[in-house]
Specification:
By secondary structure, the protein is an alpha+beta fold. It folds into two domains: about 5-35; about 60-155, Immunoglobulin-like (Sandwich), CATH 2.60.40. The chain has helices spanning about 10-35, 60-65; strands at about 50, 55, 70-75, 80-90, 100-105, 110-115, 120-125, 135-140, 145-150, 155.
Length: about 160
């Protein structure tokens, strides 16, 4: 009589055990990669979830829109740093220190924030990515203007919400 093969010598047993084991290992590896990559916040604004939609409700944006604030961001792209200057309407908005945030398209940790000195409204930043959005606000956070980044030297800054 011939002796039967042991279970670990059968190819079907390896398929029954190996495929689920490989799936578990691949799932854990994927989870580790996702956790290490950090948060993925393409728009750094808090939103309220209503049903299946996200609604932006911000008193700062409402106030900025109702006051009719507008602005322009001028960029001079250099090989090592970008020179940034801001003009606002009304002009007295730029008399306080300004915060300029260049929003990275996928990683919030790579956003670049620079502070422009009061009155001078010019500064430099080293940016090694193409920003998705530019946000300009005062240091106190009482107003905020937003602009979509394009490959041009002057960006229009408008309130995130339109006046109603």
């Amino acid at each position: 009589m011939s002796e039967g093969r042991k279970p670990w010598q059968e190819p079907m047993v390896w398929l029954m055990v190996g495929i689920p084991a490989a799936t578990v290992v691949a799932g854990l590896a994927t989870m580790a990669i996702a956790l290490r990559s950090g948060s993925m916040d393409s728009v750094p604004t808090s939103v309220q979830r209503v049903a299946q939609a996200q609604v932006l409700a911000s008193a700062v944006d409402d106030s900025t829109a109702s006051k009719g604030y507008r602005g322009f961001l001028m960029l001079e792209r250099g090989p090592e740093a970008w020179r940034v200057s801001v003009k606002t309407v009304p002009a007295n908005l730029a008399e306080t220190p300004l915060q300029v945030l260049f929003v990275h398209p996928t990683l919030a940790a790579r956003d670049v924030r620079i502070e422009l000195v009061a009155g001078a409204a010019a500064g430099a930043a080293s940016i090694d990515f193409i920003p998705q959005q530019v946000i300009v606000s005062d240091s106190a956070g009482t107003w905020r203007l937003v602009g979509a980044y394009r490959e041009q030297s002057v960006l229009d800054l408008t309130p995130a919400l339109s006046a109603q």
